[in-house]
Amino acid sequence: xxxxxxxxxxxxxxxxxxxxxxxxxxxxxxxxxxxxxxxxxxxxxxxxxxxxxxxxxxxxxxxxxxxxxxxxxxxxxxxxxxxxxxxxxxxxxxxxxxxxxxxxxxxxxxxxxxxxxxxxxxxxxxxxxxxxxxxxxxxxxxxxxxxxxxxxxxxxxxxxxxxxxxxxxxxxxxxxxxxxxxxxxxxxxxxxxxxxxxxxxxxxxxxxxxxxxxxxxxxxxxxxxxxxxxxxxxxxxxxxxxxxxxxxxxxxxxxxxxxxxxxxxxxxxxxxxxxxxxxxxxxxxxxxxxxxxxxxxxxxxxxxxxxxxxxxxxxxxxxxxxxxxxxxxxxxxxxxxxxxxxxxxxxxxxxxxxxxxxx
Length: 359
Prior knowledge:
By secondary structure, this protein is of the alpha+beta class. Helix content is 34%, strand content 21%. A hairpin with a 2-residue loop joins β4 (80-87) and β5 (90-97).
């Protein structure tokens, strides 16, 4: 089944004209309004088109029953699909962005969603067993869903069915409680997709909040796209898209929550990209051309770290580094003068690092 929403509603409402179905019609019409006016609007802004993106369609692709349509928002030019329906226990939502997300980026998504309380993985061992018939797992009920959109959890890379549906394929499913959770989750999802650069390099600005980053204190130096591109050419590495978006929006400051719990230190500041301190440290860790680098090179090699950008410093003389190349690109590490262990892993992404800071 693939029916444009208007055609499906015309057929459905004609078949339920009797007064006894009045409450049912109002309920389904409310769902359609939410999906069309709120969720499709989010996709439109993420794809930077208005009022609705050319090539993005709102369809009904299945029915759990005549009263439970399965909706799909598809933007085939971007290889994007959101498939969802409501049910007695809430909403089930499946996401597909074929050929784009990889395992590392899905791990970053999982960290983002877990930080705000979304359950993205198997909660009980019984969920794995229920998934074998591809009808449900946890609170995800796939009744009416096309087979290709009955997906494994976001954070379960080893849980892949016979069709290769799993985290590494850019697909996952999640159970959500209500329309508020659906809207919030879809916004976060599209925000992350734009931070990764999948709809262009401009961060998503469709949410009423001014920024998706933690609020920072202190003055910040503005960086233009042209300056950022020149910096990348000069160092020979593209910055991870997540950090790149952060610099264009924030570029330095002091986070309200700044405690590195495991190191008994406070983040003194997030370094502006072109600050004198950042430039001096980048000579060592990004360009690898100073005596300091030569002293620490063996530790970097043991940990498999490629060139790193100096992103912050703390009150215990530690430097927070962002790996910009190699197998650990995007990860956050701390380097210090500690003789036995000069390097320590902090987070798998810049956003995860900021989220880990405590008050």
